[in-house]
Structures are given as structure tokens and as C-alpha cells.
Amino acid sequence: MATTSAATGSKQAQADASTAELQEQILALKTDIAELTASLGRYGKAQTEALKAQARDGLRAASEKGTEGMAAASDFAGQKYAETEEYVRANPATAVGIAAGIGFLVGLLTARR
User: Fold this and answer.
1) At what angle do helices 2-90 and 92-110 cross, to 10 degrees?
2) Which of the listed residues 70, 87, 93, 112 has the most CB atoms within 10 Å of its CB?
């Protein structure tokens, strides 16, 4: 009987040691998971900030290109206006004839019948 009690006590001691070891491993696992969660949160925030900065840079570049395009279009329109004005001053009769023809065509197209 003494051997049975000793064997049972030995098994109980091993089970207690295994339980304590498992509890330590579970605690370590919980700590690791908490650290991973925090790391993922920091990584997500960093990626969000990087994407925001990239979007701001893209918007700024597009705005600059749009402003340059508007300036170029304005310059082009100004040049064409000056050329047209020059042509009308050089050929007033032709300009009046062209304007009358355009007016007649617009009148025909918009007249209600």
C-alpha cells in the first residue's frame, strides 16, 4: 500500500508541475498576443499615415498640373483673341461677312417652325 500511495503522490506532483508549467505557457502566450496586437496597431497607424501623406502629395501634384494647364489654356486663348482682333482690324469687310453668315446659320438652326 505504501508503494501505491507513493506512486499516487508522485503522479499528483507531476500533474501539479504540468499544470503550473501550462499556466506559465498560457501566461506567456497571452503576453505575446498582447504584444503582437500592439505591434499590429502601430503598423496599421504607420501605414495609414503613409497613405495619407501619399494621397496629399498626389493631390498637390494634380493641383499644380491643373493650375499649369489653366495658365497655358488662358495664354492660348489670349493669343487667339489677339490674332482674331488683328485679323478683324486688317479685314473688316470679311469679318462682317463671316459674322453675318454665322448669324444666319444660327438663326436657321434655332428658328421654330
Assistant:
1) 120
2) 87
Amino acid identity, position 74: S
Q: How many Cβ atoms sit within 10 Å of the Cβ of residue 103?
A: 10
Q: Counting beta carbons within 10 angstroms of the beta carbon of residue 63, is it exposed (0 to 12), middle (13 to 18) or buried (19 or more)?
A: exposed
Max CA separation in the chain (angstroms): 134
Residue 48 C-alpha cell reads as 495609414
* Polymer length in residues for the chain: 113
Domain chopping of the chain, boundaries: 2-80
Grid cell at residue 13? 506532483
Closest by CA position to 50, among listed 62, 60, 42, 61: 42
Note the pTM of the prediction, 2 decimals. 0.48
Please choose, from the candidates 62, 66, 43, 65, the residue with its C-alpha nearest in 3D space to the C-alpha of residue 54: 62
Q: Give tens-digit pLDDT for 16-72.
A: 778 888 899 999 999 999 999 999 999 999 999 999 999 999 999 999 999 999 999
